[in-house]
Design goal:
The complex is a heterodimer. Helix content of chain A is 0%, strand content 53%. By secondary structure, chain A is mainly beta. By secondary structure, chain B is mostly beta strands. Chain B has one domain: Immunoglobulins (Immunoglobulin-like, Sandwich). Chain B has no helices and eleven strands. Classes of the chains: A mainly beta, B mainly beta. At the A-B interface, β4, β5, β9 and β10 of A face β4, β5, β9 and β10 of B.
Chain lengths: 113, 113
């Protein structure tokens, strides 16, 4: 059974608008959540993270929101740019620096000019 | 180098052959992880090293898979008697001793024919 779920395989957004990518998890022991961006033929690139003691973390155009009671997190990109087009993976861990990451299947974001 | 490097980037093996995949982590990162990513899926954990010690190998799919990191820096993932189901991208990641963020290499795409 998947512990981290990204239920939308794809998302298309107009340039300049907001992109919202969603992620749900089932394991209440997860204490750290990360978003990675992946371009074809490259490895995942770290984007932003959030600890379970917070409910929001912001870095420039990227904001991650965590709702622990709903076991849900989301990534907001504002404004979206064509260069943001990539596959976005949500990941979670319960072991800090020694914990392996559990990934969702990814959401492919297309930002149209 | 500045990031995690992996070699080779692409490997084609005939079924039954042995392969060895190399990972050079970021300098100073004591934690090293291997993941397997099948087409259309998120990365899945294989094994974890802290320095030269392999602390978790619960994700290795069979005893044909073997990983080592003898001097606590470079790591090698070896797959013996490759099968078609081993075809995937193999990703290596490293992390700082006190951090939860894992930084990924570009991956090795293995195709077993």
């Amino acid at each position: 059974d998947q512990q981290v779920k990204q239920n939308s395989p794809s998302l298309s957004v107009q340039e300049g608008r907001i992109s919202i990518l969603n992620c749900d998890y089932t394991n209440s022991m997860f204490d750290y959540f990360l978003w990675y961006k992946k371009y074809p033929a490259e490895g995942p690139t770290f984007l932003i993270s959030i600890s379970s003691i917070k409910d929001k973390n912001e870095d420039g155009r990227f904001t991650v929101f965590l709702n622990k009671s709903a076991k849900h997190l989301s990534l907001h990109i504002v404004p979206s740019q064509p260069g943001d087009s990539a596959v976005y993976f949500c990941a979670a861990t319960e072991g800090g620096s020694q914990g392996n990451l559990i990934f969702g299947k990814g959401t492919k974001l297309s930002v149209k000019p | 180098g500045a990031g995690v490097s992996q070699s080779p980037r692409y490997k084609v093996a005939k079924r039954g052959q042995d392969v060895a995949l190399r990972c050079d982590p970021i300098s100073g990162h004591v934690s090293l992880f291997w993941y397997q990513q099948a087409l259309g899926q998120g990365p899945e954990f294989l094994t974890y090293f802290q320095n030269e010690a392999q602390l978790d190998k619960s994700g290795l799919p069979s005893d044909r898979f073997f990983a080592e990191r003898p001097e606590g820096s470079v790591s090698t993932l070896k797959i013996q008697r490759t099968q078609q189901e081993d075809s995937a991208v193999y990703l290596c990641a490293s992390s700082h001793p006190t951090g939860s963020v894992q930084y990924f290499g570009p991956g090795t795409r293995l195709t077993v024919t």
